[in-house]
């Protein structure tokens, strides 16, 4: 097969279409899809789909490939809370090596490839003076390019304002090649720091012509309303389509009036609110009405 790469996939089914179809491949890309010709004989450059359904590739919009497969290293998150999880990760981060990051990221990407994922956005922690994880992931991005489009978010896990040289490290990550500017305003020491961190993140995105993806209001605190600042900046700077507010779990505790204000704002600005269903079950531990 190595000497005869696949040029056609026969006997496919397409959603919304009757019959079988043939897909032609040229230079690793789909050239065309036509109704299955009659009377075809088997050839070594043909893959028989056996009536399987052809679908567009899946997209992984939010993952942390630098932290993948590190649960329990060096200790387990005993409380199960987000904030202890960040503490445990800080301990593991001190043990990172270039090859460690690459090996784990590659293994997870192989699993994704095997399950039809072709586009991945990964957040990479840049709250690290050495930027070890980022440098490793930039290499992985190039290596995995034949199979996956990998987009890297420079993610200041421990804050832009609250972590020493946080803003400088974030900017250096962009200079090195990160595709997206991240932020985590609810983790900053104060509300004022949180708002300022968003202004700095958007300014860097404009300076380097990057997208924005904010870990936003990922907390039980109903007073965490940084999603409003994200929307305001996206509107003011006309960056709506380039902006994502991830998690936004505090919104489930907003009063009705605030919620009815926040959701139309997202629709009007046309930025994205993105939840991560697998991980969002861990908040809601401090709600009074659950006790």
Q: Can you walk me through this structure?
A:
The structure is a single chain. This protein has 291 residues and is α/β, with parallel strands linked by helices. The chain has 2 domains: 8-54, Roll (Urease, subunit C, domain 1), CATH 2.30.40; 58-290, TIM Barrel, CATH 3.20.20.140. It has 7 helices and 12 strands. It has helices at residues 82-93, 98-114, 132-143, 166-176, 191-208, 226-236, 256-269, and strands at 8-14, 21-26, 29-35, 46-48, 53-54, 58-63, 117-125, 149-155, 180-183, 211-216, 243-247, 272-274. The strands form 2 sheets. A 7-stranded parallel β-sheet has the order 6-7-8-9-10-11-12. α6 (226-236) links the parallel β10 and β11 (243-247). α5 packs parallel to α6 and α6 packs parallel to α7 (256-269). The protein is globular, with a radius of gyration of 22 Å. The protein starts with 7 loop residues before the first strand and ends in a 17-residue tail after the last strand. The model has no long low-confidence stretch (mean pLDDT 90).
Largest sheet: 7 strands, parallel
Average pLDDT reading = 90
- Structural class designation: alpha/beta
Number of domains: 2
Give the structure's gist in a few sentences.
The chain has helices at residues 82-93, 98-114, 132-143, 166-176, 191-208, 226-236, 256-269; strands at residues 8-14, 21-26, 29-35, 46-48, 53-54, 58-63, 117-125, 149-155, 180-183, 211-216, 243-247, 272-274.
Keywords:
single chain, 291 residues, alpha/beta, Urease, subunit C, domain 1, TIM Barrel, seven-stranded parallel beta sheet, five-stranded mixed beta sheet, 7 helices, 12 strands, 33% helix
């Amino acid at each position: 097969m190595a000497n005869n790469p696949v040029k056609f996939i026969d006997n496919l089914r397409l959603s919304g279409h009757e019959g079988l179809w043939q897909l032609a491949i040229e230079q690793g890309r789909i050239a065309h899809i036509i109704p299955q010709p009659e009377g075809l004989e088997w050839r070594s450059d043909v893959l028989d789909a056996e009536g399987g359904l052809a679908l567009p590739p899946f997209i992984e919009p939010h993952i942390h490939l630098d932290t993948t497969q590190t649960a329990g290293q060096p200790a387990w998150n005993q409380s199960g809370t987000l904030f202890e999880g960040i503490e445990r990760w800080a301990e593991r981060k001190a043990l990172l090596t270039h090859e460690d990051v690459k090996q784990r990221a590659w293994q997870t990407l192989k699993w994704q490839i095997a399950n039809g994922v072709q586009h991945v956005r990964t957040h990479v922690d840049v709250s690290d003076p050495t930027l070890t994880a980022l440098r490793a992931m930039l290499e992985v991005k190039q290596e995995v390019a034949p199979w996956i489009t990998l987009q890297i978010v420079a993610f200041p896990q421990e804050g832009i304002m609250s972590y020493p040289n946080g803003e400088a490290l974030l900017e250096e990550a962009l200079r090195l090649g990160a595709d997206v500017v991240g932020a985590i305003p609810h983790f900053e020491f104060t509300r004022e720091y949180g708002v300022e961190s968003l202004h700095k993140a958007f300014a860097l995105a404009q300076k380097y012509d990057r997208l924005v993806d904010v870990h936003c209001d990922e907390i039980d605190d109903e007073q965490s309303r940084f999603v409003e600042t994200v929307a305001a900046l996206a509107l003011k700077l006309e960056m709506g389509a380039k902006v994502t507010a991830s998690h936004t779990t505090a919104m489930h505790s907003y009063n009705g009036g605030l919620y009815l204000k926040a959701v139309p704002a997202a629709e009007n600005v046309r930025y994205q609110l993105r939840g991560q269903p697998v991980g969002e079950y861990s908040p809601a531990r401090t709600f009074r009405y659950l006790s």
